[in-house]
Amino acid sequence: MRDYKEKSSPKGLNKLINLFRADPEVPQSNSEEYYSTHNGFSTRSSGTSPDYSSDMNPVSTSTLPYNLSPLNPTMLSPFTKSPWVHFGGFFDEGPTTGLVGSLVREEGHVYSLAASGELLFTGSESRNIRVWKNQHEFTGFKSSSGFVKAMVITDGKIFTGHQDGKIRFWKVSRKDPTVYKLVASLPLMKDFIKSSINPSNYVEVRRHRNTVWIRHFDAVSCLSLDEEAGLLYSGSWDKTVKVWRVSDFKCLESIKAHDDAVNTVAVGSDGLVFTGSADGTVKVWRREMINGKGRTTRHLAVKTLLQGESAITSIAMSTESGIVYAGSSDGKVNYWDMNRRFAYGGVLRNHKMAVLCLAVSGRLVVSGSADKSLCVWRREEKGEAHTKVTMLTGHEGPVKCVTVKEDEERYQIGSDCRGQRWVVYSGSLDRSVKVWRVAEYMEAQSEPNSRAEYDLRRKL
Q1: Residue 391 is part of a domain; what is its CATH number?
Q2: N or C, which terminus of the chain has less Cβ within 10 Å?
Q3: Rounded to two decimals, what is the model's pTM?
Q4: What DSSP line would sit under 68-120, residue for residue?
Q5: Could you say which residues of the chain have pLDDT below 50?
């Protein structure tokens, strides 16, 4: 499906030659070089992308002036092997909520992160994807271009969205868990060339500029994966949402979703997809499979949940309760109940500046904001009421990304009841990633523990 206005393009060989000349970002290969480092050794693939820079790799290709300066104290630090600071035993007793550890790096803003089992993946404008295990650097890999703005993970497979408009698919080696290989860069080169030959596949994206519909021509800002349907959704600043089939990486559909940049996309249940945009709207789309056996898709707009003046920055959904949350630039989090035909539930207010990210796990809702804080809410068991659990403060810049997972440890509430705790990871434009522990129930509503945080600042 192509919602852009189609334009004709030059025919034959001249058209294809002009296409490649006009667009220097056309991928020349789906095999990019990657580096994985572990225990001081570097493993190199057969591609051509730059090094992955790591504490455990004595060689770095960074060209930042400070990194080349003899004043750089990195090698003199006794903590070079352990960038995380962990308050061991500090939260072992009671339902205390607060900071567990912090990482600060001089390699750029942290735009994306994702947790999978014992592993934490972080992406930044350095193009590095770092992998952490038990609060220590485990391994990493790096793309050849494009800030890492979005990330989704499933079963050892990683999709990353980049500033250069590409989506990259990585897979962990079966033989070595520290090695991640680049499998594909979307759209595939063969699909791009095949599509470029047919003039009907061109759409107008800007004045006097056409491109093939299967490719994002601006930054990929968000990703969402429907594992059951085998589909990947990508949202972009080019105002579209594209649908990719995971099995063969083909682009099935391009949806002209909004009148401004798409900032967030989230997959719901029963074939529903939610999108939010800088145009101030939250839209609901219903997926239909056409051409038999799911060969392609068609998405129809079924409802606009919100239409306001403030940009929508993030959407998160609780599959357990059917509640959809949307954060916006006015500092609010609005929510709706899918089980009641998207009835409006209310608004969560606590931030002084824009909400930039949201995460939901169980009955916990976490919002990160440009005011440098995170707010934790608990949805009550009956009704749609939400109770503020705590505020998490400590970042020195806007909180750009957040994810939540269950803590394996529980805390004692009564003589025969143990409460749930959660681990919250937050990435910020202050170039740090922080790890928090949050108790679902606290004895009294309060601010997080005020014990001073100790950041280990490292220059790479």
Answers
A1: 2.130.10.10
A2: N
A3: 0.78
A4: HSTT--GGG-TTTT------TTTTSSSS--EEEEEEEESS--EEEEEEETTEE
A5: 1-50, 55-95, 414-417, 443-460
